[in-house]
Automatic annotation (TrEMBL):
<keyword id="KW-0325">Glycoprotein</keyword>
<feature type="transmembrane region" description="Helical">
    <location>
        <begin position="776"/>
        <end position="796"/>
    </location>
</feature>
<dbReference type="InterPro" id="IPR000337">
    <property type="entry name" value="GPCR_3"/>
</dbReference>
<keyword id="KW-0812">Transmembrane</keyword>
<feature type="transmembrane region" description="Helical">
    <location>
        <begin position="808"/>
        <end position="831"/>
    </location>
</feature>
<dbReference type="GO" id="GO:0005886">
    <property type="term" value="C:plasma membrane"/>
</dbReference>
<feature type="transmembrane region" description="Helical">
    <location>
        <begin position="581"/>
        <end position="606"/>
    </location>
</feature>
<dbReference type="Pfam" id="PF00003">
    <property type="entry name" value="7tm_3"/>
</dbReference>
<keyword id="KW-0807">Transducer</keyword>
<feature type="domain" description="G-protein coupled receptors family 3 profile">
    <location>
        <begin position="582"/>
        <end position="846"/>
    </location>
</feature>
<dbReference type="InterPro" id="IPR017978">
    <property type="entry name" value="GPCR_3_C"/>
</dbReference>
<dbReference type="InterPro" id="IPR038550">
    <property type="entry name" value="GPCR_3_9-Cys_sf"/>
</dbReference>
<dbReference type="InterPro" id="IPR011500">
    <property type="entry name" value="GPCR_3_9-Cys_dom"/>
</dbReference>
<comment type="similarity">
    <text>Belongs to the G-protein coupled receptor 3 family.</text>
</comment>
<dbReference type="Pfam" id="PF01094">
    <property type="entry name" value="ANF_receptor"/>
</dbReference>
<feature type="transmembrane region" description="Helical">
    <location>
        <begin position="696"/>
        <end position="715"/>
    </location>
</feature>
<keyword id="KW-0732">Signal</keyword>
C-alpha cells in the first residue's frame, strides 16, 4: 500500500509540474494551419503498412507506411486548396477563417484511428508537442476506405463530431443507429451493385468471378451483389478475397482458381492499394482473357493504368466528375523547394521522377534539384481533367463551410435548436454543426449538394472504359451512365459501340457456364452445380419453348401441336376420310358398284319377260337391285368432313338400305323354299306367299329397322366428334355413334336378318332344278356374314379415318357379294347363254 501511495503521489506531482505530455508516437500533420474553425482531413497517402516484428521483450516500433500514392496526395491538396479558396471569399464565412489538419491513414483502419486521435489532440507544434487541451475540431473530411471510416466514425461518435467521407461506399455506413454522425458525398454500394448487376444482365454475363478486399467494403459489396443477382440468371463461379496479410502463396492460390475457372468476367471490389500487389503477381502468371469489372474504388486509378497495361478494356462505374477551379495550377506549385521539411512532398518527387530531392542516407535513389517541372504524363498526380474523388473532397469541404456559414448567420427565432434558438458562434459545438450539415443545400460547379436522412447523397455514376491510346497510354473514356433519378429499367444508358473490350476487341466477351438454350429446348440444371450450369434438353412432343433459355416447355392447347423444331404451336392436322387418294378410290368403287347394279337392273327390265327374270318373283329382284344401288350410294355419305346431318344420314341410310335389301332377299328365299315345297300333294303354302304377303314381309322387316333408327335419332343421335386422345398430333374428326347400344342394335338386326336368310337358303340348297336360286342366296349370305364379322374387330381397332374406310369397305364388299352371287349367274345366262333361258331348262326337264 505504501508503494502504491508513493506511486500515486509521484503521478500527481508530475501532473502539477506540467499540463500534459504525449504518451507514445504521435505523427505530425501532413498539412496544418490555424483559424477560427478547424476541420480535419484523413487521406491514404500510402497504400500499405509494414508491421514491425514483435518479440514481446522491448516496446514494438511504430508501423511503417509504404507505397506512396500520388493520387491520394492530390486529394489532400484539394482539401487544402478548397479551404484557401473559402478563406479568400467574401460571401462565405466573412470575417471568419477555416483551418485544417491533414493526416495520413496509410489505408489501414489502425493507422486511421491513430490519425483521428492525433486530430482530436490539440498539438502545439511551437511548444514541442506539449498539449494544453483537446483540439477544437468541428468536423472531419475522411476517409477513403470503408473499414477506415467505420473506425474513425466510431471514434468520433462519443464527441458527436460529424465526418464527411469522400470515398467510403459501404452500405453499412448508412445505418444511422450505428453511425449517427456519418455523412458522405459519394453513393453507397447498394446503388453501385445495382448498376453492376444491370451491366452484367445487359451483356449476358451469367458466369462471373468476384474478387474482394478483406475489409468491410469488400464484404458488404459482395453481400449487396449477391442480393441483386439472387433472382436472376447470374451465378458466382467463385469468390476470392485478397488477404490482409499479403503473402505470395495465398495470392497464387487465388490466381490458380481464376486461371482454371471458365468465368471470363471478374468483378473486383477493392481499393487500389490492396489490388496493386495482387495485379503484380497476376501479370507474372501471364493469365489472359479476363474482362475486369471495376468498382468505383479503382476504376479511375491512374497508378494501376500506368503500371499494368494489360488492364485495358476494364469497365466499371465511377463517381460523377466535376470541375475544381484552379486545381491544376495549384498542384504545380507544390514542390520540395516550397515544402522543404514536408516528407510527403519528398516522396511525391521520388514517386514521380524516381529521384530524391534531399540528401538522405536512407534513400537509394539518385538525387535531383526538386525544381523539376510537372508534366502531363504524371497522371496519377496531375489528372485534373475529370476529377472525381478530388471533386468529392472539394464538395465535402464546401459542405462544412456552408453549414458553418448558415450556423453563424442564424436569425434568432429561426434556429434549429430548442425554442428555435441559434448557436453561439463564438463557441460552436460539433453537434450543433451536425444539425446544420443535415439541412445544408448548396450548389458547387453547377451541382446541387445535399444529404438525405441517412447522410447519403444523390446516387449517380459514369460508366468508364479503359482504352489504350495510340501512344500506349490508357485513357478513361466515359461510355455511359447510371442515374437513379430515371424511371425503373432506364437507369443504365450505354454507348456500346464506344466500348473497347479486353484484348482490344470490339466484340462483347462471353462469360457463361453453359451456352444458351435455343428455342425448342429447355434448361436442365446439373446436379450439384449452380443454376447457371445446365444442359439443353429438347422439349417433349406437344410442348414448345419460343424463347432463349426457357426454364420449362409450354404445353400446346388441345387443338394445337408442336412443330418439328418445338418452337411454336401449329394447328393439329384434322384427319377425316376426305377426297384424297383413298377417298377417291372408294368413291370410284362405290360409283362403279352402283353403275353395275343399275346396269343389271336395266338388263332385267329389258328381259323381264324371260323365265330367268320371272322366276321367284321379278318384283323382288327389282327391289333387291334398287336397294343394292342405294347401298352402294350410301357409301358416298361416309366420305368428306363429318357434319351433324351427314353423321345421322350415314348410319341410318346404311342400316335402312341394308335392312331393305336383306328383307327382299329373305322374301325371295321364302318364295324359293315355298315354291319347291308346294309341289308336294296337299301343300297349299304358296297362297300364303303371294305378292301382297311378300310386300308385307319386306315392309315389316324394314319397318323394324326404321323404328330402331328413329329411336336412335331421337334419344342419342350420331354427331361429329373431334378425337384428340387417340393421336396427340392429330385431331381425328369422325362421327360418334351417340348411343353404342343403338349402333350395335342396328348391326345386330341386320345380322339377324342375314342369319335367318342364310338358314332358310341353306335348307333349300339341294332342291331340284338347274337354277336353284337358294344355292346362290346361301353363298351371298355366307359372304355377307363373313364380311361383317370381319368388320367388327377391324372397326374397333382401326385408327382415324381408317375406321370409316373399313366401314365403307364392309358396305361395298357385302354389296358386291350380294350383287355377284345373286345376279351374276342370271346375267351370264341372259347375255351369254340365252338358250338356257327357258322354263324347261330351269326346271331341269331338258333331255340329256
Amino acid at each position: 500500500m505504501i508503494y502504491i501511495f508513493f506511486y500515486v503521489f509521484h503521478l500527481s506531482s508530475a501532473a502539477v509540474s506540467s499540463d500534459c505530455s504525449p504518451q507514445g508516437d504521435f505523427d505530425r500533420p501532413v498539412f496544418m494551419t490555424t483559424g477560427d474553425f478547424t476541420i480535419g482531413g484523413i487521406f491514404p497517402l500510402h497504400y500499405r503498412v509494414e508491421l514491425p516484428p514483435t518479440d514481446y521483450i522491448k516496446r514494438p516500433l511504430a508501423a511503417q507506411c509504404q507505397g506512396f500514392d500520388p493520387r491520394a496526395f492530390r486529394w489532400a491538396l484539394t482539401m487544402k486548396l478548397a479551404v484557401e479558396q473559402i478563406n479568400h471569399r467574401k460571401d462565405l464565412l466573412p470575417n471568419r477563417t477555416l483551418a485544417y489538419k491533414i493526416f495520413d491513414s496509410c489505408a489501414t483502419p489502425v493507422t486511421a484511428q491513430k490519425a483521428v486521435l492525433a486530430v482530436l489532440n490539440g498539438h502545439d507544434i511551437v511548444s514541442a508537442f506539449i498539449c494544453s487541451k483537446t483540439g477544437n475540431l468541428l468536423g472531419l473530411v475522411g476517409e477513403s476506405g470503408s473499414s477506415q471510416s467505420i473506425v474513425v466514425s466510431r471514434t468520433l461518435q462519443p464527441f458527436r463530431i460529424p465526418m464527411i467521407s469522400y470515398f467510403s461506399t459501404c452500405s453499412c455506413l448508412s445505418d444511422r443507429k450505428q453511425f449517427p454522425t456519418f455523412f458522405r458525398v459519394i453513393p453507397n454500394d447498394d446503388y453501385q451493385v445495382k448498376a453492376i448487376a444491370q451491366l452484367l444482365k445487359k451483356f449476358g454475363w451469367t458466369w462471373i468471378g468476384v474478387v474482394t478486399e478483406d475489409h468491410d467494403y469488400g464484404k458488404f459489396a459482395l453481400q449487396g451483389l449477391k442480393r441483386e443477382i439472387e433472382n436472376t440468371d447470374i451465378c458466382l463461379a467463385y469468390h476470392e478475397m485478397i488477404p490482409k496479410d499479403y503473402t505470395r502463396e495465398k495470392v497464387l492460390r487465388i490466381l490458380k482458381v481464376m486461371k482454371e475457372s471458365t468465368a471470363k468476367v471478374v468483378v473486383v471490389f477493392s481499393g487500389e492499394g490492396e489490388f496493386y500487389p495482387f495485379l503484380r503477381e497476376f501479370m507474372i502468371q501471364n493469365i489472359t482473357g479476363i474482362q475486369w469489372i471495376a468498382s468505383e474504388a479503382w476504376v479511375t486509378a491512374s497508378i494501376l493504368a500506368e503500371s499494368y497495361p494489360f488492364l485495358h478494356g476494364t469497365t466499371g462505374f465511377a463517381i460523377r466528375q466535376g470541375h475544381i477551379p484552379g486545381l491544376e495550377d495549384y498542384l504545380k506549385t507544390v514542390n520540395p523547394e516550397e515544402y522543404p521539411s514536408n516528407p510527403q512532398v519528398q516522396e511525391l518527387w521520388e514517386a514521380l521522377y524516381g529521384c530524391s530531392p534531399s540528401i538522405s542516407l536512407n534513400s537509394h535513389l539518385p538525387s535531383c534539384t526538386g525544381k523539376e517541372t510537372l508534366r502531363e504524363e504524371h497522371s496519377a498526380y496531375m489528372n485534373t481533367s475529370s476529377p472525381r474523388v478530388s471533386y468529392n473532397v472539394y464538395k465535402a469541404v464546401y459542405a462544412f463551410a456552408h453549414s458553418l456559414h448558415n450556423l453563424i448567420h442564424c436569425t434568432p427565432g429561426n434556429g434549429l435548436f430548442e425554442n428555435f434558438s441559434c448557436a453561439d458562434f463564438n463557441n460552436v459545438f460539433p453537434w450543433q454543426l451536425q444539425h446544420y450539415l443535415q439541412e445544408v443545400s448548396f450548389s458547387v460547379s453547377g451541382e446541387e449538394v445535399n444529404f438525405d436522412i441517412k447522410g447519403d447523397s444523390i446516387p449517380s455514376y459514369d460508366l468508364i472504359n479503359w482504352q489504350r491510346h495510340t501512344n500506349g497510354d490508357i485513357q478513361f473514356i466515359k461510355v455511359g451512365l447510371y442515374d437513379t433519378a430515371q424511371h425503373a429499367g432506364k437507369e443504365l444508358v450505354i454507348e456500346e459501340q464506344a466500348i473497347m473490350w479486353s484484348n482490344q476487341h470490339n466484340k462483347v466477351p462471353v462469360s457463361v457456364c453453359s451456352n444458351s438454350c435455343t428455342p425448342g429446348f429447355r434448361k436442365a440444371v446439373r446436379r450439384g452445380q449452380p443454376l447457371c450450369c445446365f444442359d439443353c434438353v429438347p422439349c417433349d412432343i406437344g410442348k414448345i419453348s419460343n424463347q432463349t433459355d426457357s426454364i420449362d416447355c409450354l404445353s400446346c392447347p388441345e387443338d394445337y401441336w408442336s412443330n418439328m423444331n418445338r418452337t411454336m404451336c401449329v394447328p393439329k392436322v384434322v384427319e377425316f376420310l376426305s377426297h384424297d387418294a383413298m377417298g377417291i378410290t372408294l368413291t370410284v368403287i362405290a360409283v362403279v358398284g352402283a353403275f353395275l347394279t343399275i346396269t343389271v337392273l336395266l338388263i332385267f327390265l329389258y328381259n323381264r319377260g324371260t323365265p330367268i327374270v320371272r322366276v321367284n318373283n321379278s318384283e323382288l329382284s327389282f327391289f333387291i337391285l334398287l336397294s343394292l344401288t342405294l347401298c352402294f350410294l350410301c357409301a358416298l355419305v361416309f366420305i368428306g368432313e363429318p357434319t351433324s346431318w351427314s353423321c345421322m344420314l350415314r348410319h341410318t341410310a346404311f342400316s335402312i338400305t341394308f335392312s331393305l335389301c336383306i328383307s327382299c332377299i329373305l322374301g325371295k328365299t321364302l318364295v324359293v323354299l315355298a315354291a319347291f315345297t308346294a309341289t308336294r300333294p296337299g301343300n297349299n303354302i304358296m297362297k300364303w306367299l303371294g305378292p301382297t304377303q311378300q310386300r308385307i314381309i319386306i315392309f315389316s322387316c324394314t319397318l323394324v329397322q326404321v323404328l330402331i333408327c328413329t329411336a336412335w335419332l331421337v334419344v342419342s343421335p350420331p354427331f361429329p366428334y373431334r378425337n384428340t386422345k387417340y393421336q396427340q398430333s392429330k385431331i381425328i374428326l369422325d362421327c360418334s355413334v351417340g348411343s353404342d347400344m343403338a349402333f350395335w342394335c342396328v348391326l345386330g338386326y341386320i345380322g339377324l336378318l342375314a342369319c335367318v336368310c342364310f338358314f332358310l337358303a341353306f335348307l333349300a340348297r339341294k332342291l331340284p332344278g338347274n337354277f336353284n336360286e337358294a344355292k346362290y342366296i346361301t353363298f351371298s349370305m355366307l359372304i355377307f356374314c363373313a364380311v361383317w364379322l370381319a368388320f367388327v374387330p377391324a372397326y374397333v381397332s382401326s385408327p382415324g379415318k381408317f375406321t370409316t374406310a373399313v366401314e365403307i369397305f364392309a358396305i361395298l364388299a357385302s354389296s358386291f357379294g350380294l350383287l355377284l352371287c345373286l345376279f351374276a349367274p342370271k346375267c351370264y345366262i341372259i347375255l351369254l347363254k340365252p338358250e338356257k333361258n327357258t322354263k324347261q331348262h330351269l326346271m331341269g326337264k331338258v333331255a340329256k
